[in-house]
């Protein structure tokens, strides 16, 4: 169990792993989900939620999902926004959670050390974003106070990007380039 924040709330981990991986040649979740889960758990996130879609049967057959709250997104083809909405809706049901670290499955360079660094200052009103050599990246930490509007506005493959842009003045960037890499894998 992760240490609670000052109000006694914890920080969940949410990995978005539902996409078809068209440019990659197939779903990325069977290849990268284990590492993403390890980074979230190792970084102190509890609980950990994984949103699956394309390739869900392969993931269930090949990755140990013990202790992971798995939700399947029937609307995964609509894009990342639908998975983010489903994941945040799932975490909303957990009153002990004050913030969530949102991680993308295709970023194997994200480490537990980066997740722990991002998670440490999390609170219900936070918006935190990893940066790599000053460039914004993932994971992002979304405080509970922001979830309703993000769920209402996340669409397509943008996830929370538009929301973070609208609230840019309130986003805290935390440098993670010394402990992780912010690249994503789009081709095998």
Describe, in short, the structure shown.
29% of the residues lie in helices and 24% in strands.
- Rough outline: globular
Question: Share of helix among residues?
Answer: 25-40%
Strand content: 15-25%
The count of helical stretches stands at 6
Class of secondary structure makeup: alpha/beta
- The gyration radius over C-alpha positions equals 15 Å
How far apart, in Å, are the first and last alpha carbons?
35 Å
Average pLDDT reading: 93
Report the oligomer.
Answer: single chain
Number of strands: 7
The biggest beta sheet is recorded as: 7 strands, mixed
Topology:
Elements: E1 10-17, H1 29-42, E2 48-52, H2 56-62, E3 68-72, H3 80-92, E4 97-104, H4 112-119, E5 127-132, E6 135-143, H5 147-153, H6 161-166, E7 172-175
Parallel strand pairs: 1-2, 1-4, 2-3, 5-7
Antiparallel strand pairs: 4-6, 5-6
Helix pairs in contact: 1-2, 1-4, 3-5
Describe this structure in words.
The longest helix has 14 residues. A hairpin with a 2-residue loop joins strand 5 and strand 6. A seven-stranded mixed β-sheet has the order 3-2-1-4-6-5-7, with helices on both faces. The chain has six helices and seven strands. The protein is of the alpha/beta class. Helix 3 runs antiparallel to helix 5. The protein starts with 9 loop residues before the first strand and ends in a 13-residue tail after the last strand.
């Amino acid at each position: 169990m992760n240490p609670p924040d000052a109000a006694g709330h914890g920080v969940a981990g949410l990995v978005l792993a539902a996409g078809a991986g068209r440019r990659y040649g197939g779903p990325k979740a069977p290849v990268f989900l284990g590492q993403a889960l390890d980074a979230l758990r190792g970084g102190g996130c509890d609980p950990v939620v994984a949103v699956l879609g394309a390739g869900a049967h392969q993931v269930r057959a090949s990755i140990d999902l013990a202790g992971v709250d798995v939700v399947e997104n029937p609307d995964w083809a609509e894009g990342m926004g639908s998975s983010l909405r489903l994941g945040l809706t799932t975490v909303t049901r957990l009153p002990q959670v004050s913030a969530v670290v949102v991680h993308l499955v295709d970023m194997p360079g994200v480490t537990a050390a980066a997740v722990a660094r991002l998670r440490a200052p999390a609170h219900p009103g936070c918006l935190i974003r990893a940066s790599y050599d000053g460039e914004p990246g993932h994971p992002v930490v979304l405080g509970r106070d922001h979830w309703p509007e993000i769920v209402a506005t996340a669409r397509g493959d943008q996830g929370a990007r538009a929301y973070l842009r609208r609230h840019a003045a309130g986003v805290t960037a935390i440098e993670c380039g010394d402990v992780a890499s912010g690249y994503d894998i789009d081709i095998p």
